[in-house]
Task: structure prediction
Amino acid sequence: MLSGKGGTGKTTVSSALIKLSEAKAYADCDVDAPNLHLIMSHTEVSKNRDFYGLPKAAINQKICIQCDLCRKMCQFDAVEKINNSYCIHDLACEGCGVCEMICPVRAITLKPSVVGDLMLYQNGSVFSTAKIRMGSGNSGKLVTAVKQELKAVAPQASFAIIDGSPGIGCPVIASLSGVDMVLIVAEPSVTGISDMKRIIATANQFLTPIAVCINKYDVNTIQTKRIEVYCRQHHISIIGYIPYDTEVVQAVNRNQSIIDIDCKAGSAVRKMFGIIEPFLKHTIRTKESKNE
Amino acid sequence: MKVAVLSGKGGTGKTLLSVNLAAVSPRALYIDCDIEEPNGRLFFKPAFNKTEFVTVLVPEVKQTLCNGCRQCVDFCKFNALTYIKGKLVIFDSLCHSCNGCYTLCPKKALSPKKKRIGRIQRGVSRNVSVTTGILNVGEASGVPIIKKLIKSASASYALHIIDCPPGSSCIVMESIKEADYCILVAEPTIFGLHNLKMVDELVRLFNKPYGLILNKCMDPWDPIEAFCKERRINILGRIPLDQDISKLNSEGFILVRTKKAYKNFFSALLKTIQKEADNQTIIGA
Result:
């Protein structure tokens, strides 16, 4: 589940589809702003694990001869001279190891650093999610770890839903890799359409089959028409139209999915769910016949 | 004054707020740091008269000089180099431009090569100077574009509005680094609150003075008000959930340039922000 633009309804639609499909495996890959766990209320305690990013540099002040080489060589401006001693900014250090390599007196070593928390819920189904630690930076690797954890624990699950993050950069690319289909939640606004085009172009680079659903389609019917025209021109199927529905926020604020209550938006997602399975089967068949 | 607008969750109204604050001030510089999905330009519709490409340095190999020692492969923490069938292969998109491999190569077989990852465009929309960064599709990181955007921002504007990307990772940290004041935008839902808690932690980590604006407000929603009280977060304003606003915004109109009432609303909001920022930055200093 992706969207380009944020706040179009990825998590709302994801949670509804997870419940409708009774998915045995699902994940929240929006590690910057994870929300799926708030709706998929699990009563059991999650299994938590620290996620280590690349080790970060540390300078041993007793050995440092203040040659300034590390500061000059660091491409990330992570080394600074403060009060006559050299320090590493953890927030800026990317762990490339150049300073450790070039230090003439071996005063620099790379130290392990926890950059995120992985959480795994198992209760008939498997739910993998994570949260990045503030100031840790790069979230693509954590996304990959969330997916690996899901695969390791639920290898037999035939259907999995992955709730992605907004944007088109590294966490999105990490979410995209290896999936059979991308469902884009589009929004009928000039910004929503611009972002939809960019996420479609990104998914196309990975040759991933795409389907689109339009959320709050009735808020601006002119922009909805523009999405339809664009999708037709690019041979992309629109498989769902979800109306604007004030019940949605109410449900979310009660930690409920929109299919838990009787509402217009929930019915629309139910209808869409009926189309997803044949769509997936068809795209997988087409892919296989192409491979043959 | 440099004001950064950020949110954690996407779609809470960062661009709506940024664009309207910039447009309502007498003269401002609007900087769109949401390089993955730059949308401010869709509202300002400036005639971009300057385009600058952003490049990074990635390694290039002279196969004839490479003796296959694999020191670079072992060194690269980002797995951007590999040695397959007697040949060194480089994956540009994984490279973080640390310069380690060419510094290391004993045969000087590696050298830096420029690679375009995106562009910066500049234009004018009436009282607002518009600068936007755009990341090329398929590129993993826009951090170098944001660095350049922030560095090249002209000091001749009294007000800089920095429209940040959603989330709380490296691109957000880079966008708020130089800001004097941060505005967090949140919507009153459990999603909005959960992500607000994360960015609240982030701005505190960076020691930035900040305030909150609530968007898409209906009736007061207690959990977010309680959180703000507990964390002593100043709520600078509330933008109502309103069909007219949604409609105008979805069409790409700038609210303050369409109706007097919106102009008055955002003008008052900007005054509150300026006053609050002045107070807090003085205390902070």
About this structure: Chain B has a mean pLDDT of 95. Chain B touches chain A through 55 residues (CB under 8 Å). The radius of gyration of chain B is 22 Å.
